[in-house]
Amino acid sequence: MKFWKEHSELRMILMLVTFVVGIVLLVAGWKMTGQLKGLGIMLVGVAFLLATLYFYNTRFAEERGKKSR
């Protein structure tokens, strides 16, 4: 977790890339209405958006752990 705190530029770039890829996949899957392949693409897009949230929250994970001790 210390790695992400020290490399905030890398974390920001990674968050931007995963967010954009996630949104693009969601829209691409949404355009395939009625096809099972579209649902799979949308689920992968949601996974990318969840990865974005993970990278965002890694900055706060250590702070929260230290306060509760």
Can you walk me through this structure?
By secondary structure, the chain is an all-alpha fold. Helices cover 88% and strands 0% of the residues. It is built from three helices and no strands. The chain has helices at 2-6, 8-30, 36-68. Helix 2 (8-30) packs antiparallel against helix 3 (36-68). The chain is elongated, with a radius of gyration of 16 Å. 10% of the residues are buried. The model has no long low-confidence stretch (mean pLDDT 86).
Jot down its keywords:
mainly alpha
Unreliable runs: none
Give helix and strand order, one letter per element, not per position: HHH
Mean pLDDT: 86
Main beta-sheet annotation: none
Count up the helices.
Answer: 3
Write down how many β-strands occur, each being a DSSP E stretch of 2 or more residues: 0
Q: State the separation between the terminal residues, measured CA to CA.
A: 18 Å
Structural class given helices, strands, pairing? Answer: mainly alpha
Shape: elongated
Which strand-content bin applies to the residues? under 5%
Rounded radius of gyration (Å): 16 Å
What does this entry show, briefly?
The two termini are 18 Å apart. The protein is mostly helical. The protein has helices at 2-6, 8-30, 36-68.
